[in-house]
Request: fold
Amino acid sequence: MDKSYNSIIEVLIFSSDEPISENEIIRAIKGIDGEDIEITPDNISETVDLLNKSYEENGRSFRIKKIANGFVFVTTEIFAKYVGYLSSEKSKRRLSQAALETLAIIAYKQPVTKPELEQIRGVNSDYILTSLLEKNLITIIGRAESIGRPLLYGTTTEFLKYFGLYNLSDLPKPREIEEIMKDEDFIEQKNKIMMNFVEESIEKELNDENNNTTE
Amino acid sequence: MYKIKLDQFEGPLDLLLFFIKRDELNIYDIPISRITSEFLEYVNLIKLMDLEVAGDFILMASTLMHIKVRMLLPREIDERGEEIDPRADLIKALLEYKKYKEVAEDLTFLESHQRKLNYRGYFSADEKIAPPEFDTLLKNISIYDLAKAFKKAIDGVKPQVVHEIKKINISIDDQIKFILDRVLEKGEIHFLSLIHGMKEKIRIVITFIALLELTKIGKVGIKESTEFNDFVIYGLANG
Reply:
């Protein structure tokens, strides 16, 4: 790939409103310079790495990040307070615990219906769903085939951007129930029960023996 | 009893997990009786305050009591001949909930990190020139967007002017008693001072009717007042 494409890739990412995917970058380049240009998604990732490295070396205040299935310019953390001072976007309130919990369930279980969600949370979730819909973190992605055809909810691109994720497989992995079971304190407790059980049966046997001897 | 801040818990499962953690209970061997009574104490507390939330807690309370009863009965046996622990479903629900609660913590971490980063601003003011896409029916729009727009349009319709009719609880009998009390207290009373402070027309009308009624049955008399446009009500001995 020609070195001059570094700047072209940079300018395409810079001028895009939304995170721009590798395929779109390739489409733009091939659309102008012809289909026979050899350029692969890997080339683009490499270029982005190079660009980021040069930004870092030159002490620039931004980087290109892989977020929401594409590339996007992002300010660096150390300038957060200055940017945040003027940006009303970031002064918005953080999500509540209930909202995060609900998002976690939707993110992993999507497409998910309200009853399924409420089953897991154990509480009515009307209000939370409405506020997440309004924040555009979740959306209605269809209807289930089950009785009553309940609405199905899923996460949005905005969700990926909010948490800085490239795609859904970027989500933190939940611990499987088996893993929670392997948790140290649980093992300890389990052992304790087992010990109690063993002790009880030994005691019982001893008592039985005593009873037998006294008889 | 422990003092618990009410809004601290996201729901009944959260509260149960709190009890389990606080008392270092084994999630696989929950002392149902003890946890049920603790739970009920808490439910009584919130029942007084917030009915909407209380519903979910009361449901859990009844589930706990149901489990408690089943624990006392001989165990049911599943198709493989194994005993069914009445707590199994609850434990499953607790673990499932715990799983997502942990993820929510991870998300909190991501959130606080991501909040420090800003995406490059959008050219939102710029007119976008995009080729029309004939084969796309819904582009970047969900049913929720449509519903929102529809609601906004509907809400934008000017509301009809509505004249509210307020129901005033007042009866002739009440006003008869009112007049008699006043006459008994003062001996004589001017009509204008009797209706003084009454805001609604209907109240004055009813009071007047009550007065006429009283005069008819001979409980009060009416006489001319020294003041214009007024008259005096006085009690009658045989009344």
Notes: The beta strands of chain A are 62-67, 70-75, 112-113, 138-143, 151-155.
